[in-house]
């Protein structure tokens, strides 16, 4: 059972991707929803808003504890921001540059190579962050120039782009197969 943090942002699109893969999922809106999940998706949206809502719903400390204790977690865009920020989940030792590629109008799409995928992944970037000064214990899975846009570390996977906005479920599948199971 995968929990999809459902406070703000691209929520239903992640649930759709999981449904397509036949992976059971449920929305996470409060602490009780966290019971029995084997993995968590933190969607893209606006990281400051998501963090405020997590705090308001008394989810923030509980989710932080679960992620730090090993809950497999996939963060996309704002989710990558929250996984990286020292003041948020502090799971990725790197400098996160929010809106690193510019504002909404500078949104772009790019085909990215992943060693784990046979064909490139068509990635949609919307006010996307990137990581730099990435610590040696982080696997950089995809880069644009010297900017890390997909990374993993232990049980955490993060992309600066929105894999849930295309029909391509391969990164969700990768998360389920390599991080959750
Ligand atoms: N599409 C997104 O998730 C954008 C993330 C946003 N720029 C933030 O920092 O929260």
TrEMBL record:
The keyword Secreted does not apply. GO terms for cellular component: cytosol; glutaminase complex. GO terms for molecular function: glutaminase activity; pyridoxal 5'-phosphate synthase (glutamine hydrolysing) activity; transferase activity. The active site is at residues 77, 162, 164. Its EC number is 4.3.3.6, 3.5.1.2. InterPro entries: Class_I_gatase-like, PdxT/SNO, PdxT/SNO_CS. L-glutamine binds at residues 45-47, 98, 126-127. Keywords: Glutamine amidotransferase, Hydrolase, Lyase, Pyridoxal phosphate, Transferase. Transmembrane segments: none annotated. Signal peptide: none annotated. Pfam families: SNO. Pathway: Cofactor biosynthesis; pyridoxal 5'-phosphate biosynthesis. CDD domains: GATase1_PB. GO terms for biological process: L-glutamine catabolic process; pyridoxal phosphate biosynthetic process; pyridoxine metabolic process. It catalyses: aldehydo-D-ribose 5-phosphate + D-glyceraldehyde 3-phosphate + L-glutamine = pyridoxal 5'-phosphate + L-glutamate + phosphate + 3 H2O + H(+); L-glutamine + H2O = L-glutamate + NH4(+). Belongs to the glutaminase PdxT/SNO family. PANTHER family: PYRIDOXAL 5'-PHOSPHATE SYNTHASE SUBUNIT SNO, PYRIDOXAL 5'-PHOSPHATE SYNTHASE SUBUNIT SNO1-RELATED. HAMAP family: PdxT. In the presence of PdxS, forms a dodecamer of heterodimers. Only shows activity in the heterodimer. Catalyzes the hydrolysis of glutamine to glutamate and ammonia as part of the biosynthesis of pyridoxal 5'-phosphate. The resulting ammonia molecule is channeled to the active site of PdxS. This is Pyridoxal 5'-phosphate synthase subunit PdxT. The gene is pdxT.
């Amino acid at each position: 059972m995968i929990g999809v943090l459902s406070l703000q942002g691209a929520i239903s699109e992640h649930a759709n991707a999981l449904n397509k893969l036949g992976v059971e999922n449920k929305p996470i809106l409060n602490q009780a929803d966290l019971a029995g999940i084997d993995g968590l998706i933190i969607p893209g949206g606006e990281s400051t808003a998501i963090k405020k809502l997590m705090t308001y719903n008394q989810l923030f400390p509980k989710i932080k504890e679960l992620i730090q204790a090993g809950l497999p977690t996939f963060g996309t865009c704002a989710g990558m921001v929250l996984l990286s920020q020292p003041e948020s989940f502090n799971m990725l030792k790197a400098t996160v540059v929010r809106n690193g590629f510019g504002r909404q109008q500078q949104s772009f799409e790019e085909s990215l190579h992943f060693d784990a995928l046979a064909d490139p992944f068509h990635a949609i970037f919307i006010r996307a962050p990137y990581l730099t000064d990435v610590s040696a214990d982080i696997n950089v899975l995809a880069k644009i120039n010297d900017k890390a846009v997909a990374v993993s570390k232990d049980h955490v996977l993060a992309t600066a782009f929105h894999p849930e906005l295309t029909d391509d479920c391969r990164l969700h599948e990768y998360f389920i197969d390599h991080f959750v199971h």
